[in-house]
Amino acid sequence: MPVHWWLVVLAAAACGGAAVAISPLMAGAATGAAAVVVLVIHRPEWAGYIYLGLTPLIVGLQRGMLIPVIRLNEALLGLLCLAVVLGSVRRWALAGFPRLDVRVVDLAVLGLALFSSVTSLLWMYARAVDITADDILFALTLWKYGALYLLFRITIRSEAQVRRAILVALLACVPVAVLGVLQAVGVGPVLAFLVPFATDEGPAALANNRASSTIGAPIPFGDVMVMVFALALGWLTHVRAHRLPMAAIAALFGISAVASGQVSSWLGLLVAGLVIGWAMGRLRHAVAGIAVLGAASAIALQPVISARVPTGGGVPTAWTGEDGRIGNLSEFIWPRIGEGVNWLFGVRTSARIPAPEVWREWVWIESGYTWLMWNGGLPLTAAFVVFAVSALKVAQRVVRDGTPAFRAVGLAALGVLAMEVVLMVVDPHLTMRGAADLLFPMIALCVNWHLGFSRTATSAAGSGAPPPFPGPGVGGSVNAAGAQSRA
Q: Which of 177-186, 306-315, 384-393 has the lowest mean pLDDT?
């Protein structure tokens, strides 16, 4: 071993010994982080596996609980991005920088980040509007998901890697789903276990027959369950391995989505299921399956149904009550967007405003499309439309021509994107914590199949061009048969 490596080992040992003496917990965390960095530098696909495997279990932990200012999953994302960058720089130094291959979806994701932050903050500055810490925090949201999207564009590229990524995502969400169902029916020990994941409403909200589990809130929990339900259906349809346990997992996720107690989740489950059935050419089977799932959920989750469905029917009180979303939007939000030319670049980046009443702290923007106009005006709204349309086209093409694991992701992405387009009417589902952490990786994987096809087709044509960006030495994503099916 060269002398300089001995110096590095000795310095690391000395630092590690000092860290153990000061704080064993800190030393353990530092050792684990270093191990993750080394692993990802040499095997970049592990960045995706680690994020998918841990995020559903930790995303609901409150900001600043373990690390000042940020959430634990955000720290994890930063660590993984650092490792991927270090590994990519190492490979680029050895093999040269790959050529760029930028798609419309990539530009749309960049547009979402830019128009939800830079243009909005400049517009606030031009109007002499005070920029608060809350504005900065919300302005960073879509940059975070843009980084997550890029992470998966770089790391998960081959058929085998996508297959493993699907399994990791599904298995990680199984305990999340089980905890959610038990929480919804009021199992005491589960409620006590979930106290660190309680929302801003406090631990009392855990016992209101609405599952939030480790995601931390019922609405994003419902979204996540619909997404993994769609992934499980995609696996059953195209991969077709382990069909019996995968069918049981799909049923668990469907029931868990109902356990969220959110009408939006129930609607999302319906939309995603119907779109997937239509894409498979089995719409009648999808309708029958949704009916059976609904009946089973109504029986198993009677406390949830009775607590969330209005006794006299009609619109839920969350829409029409004293602090209902319709009243909030018409009184506090829509008039501000209509002032002057605020509709052009938005009002401000914060998705909430201080409430005038003493009995509540914030008025939230509980409409996704209204949030787009509030945050970034016409440019952000246009970026979302381009993102949704281009991602739907990519997913549809993957379902038609991809290899099995990619088709599974593409099918799930079709259902999830359709759900997003519909549910953005009622909430900003694009940035829901936990749900966005799965949506952007799914879209990135669909785009990666197109790059894999381009790479395979180029090789078949005898071209000597280097692989498209990011391509950090990771295998391709389609085989020759897949290339011929697209020819």
A: 306-315
**Residues shown for the chain:** 487
In the three-class reduction of DSSP (H, G, I as helix; E, B as strand; rest coil), residue 30 is classed as helix
Neighbours of 34 (CB within 10 A): 14
Tens digit of each residue's pLDDT (9 = 90 or more) over 10-44: 455 555 555 555 556 666 677 788 888 889 998 99
Instruction: Sort 464 into a burial class: Cβ within 10 Å, 0-12 / 13-18 / 19+.
Output: exposed
Task: Give 290: exposed, middle or buried? Use CB within 10 Å, 0-12, 13-18, 19+.
Answer: middle
Are 194 and 214 in contact by the 8 Å Cβ rule? The answer is yes
For residue 38, how many other CB atoms are within 10 A of its CB?
A: 13
Rounded to whole angstroms, the Cα distance separating 17 from 103 reads 48
Q: How far apart are the first and last CA of the chain?
A: 51
Nearest of 41, 39, 51, 42 to residue 440 by alpha carbon: 51
Give strand pairing partners of 352.
364
Instruction: Note if the bond before 98 is cis, omega within 30 degrees.
Output: no
pLDDT digits (tens, 9 = 90+) for 415-447: 999 999 999 999 999 999 999 999 999 999 999
Residue 239 Rama label (left phi>0; alpha psi -120 to 50; beta): alpha
φ, ψ of residue 23 in degrees (nearest 5): -155, 105
Q: Bridge partners of 286?
A: none
Assign 311 to helix, strand or coil.
Answer: coil
DSSP letter string, 96-132: -PPBP---HHHHHHHHHHHHTTHHHHHHHHHTT----
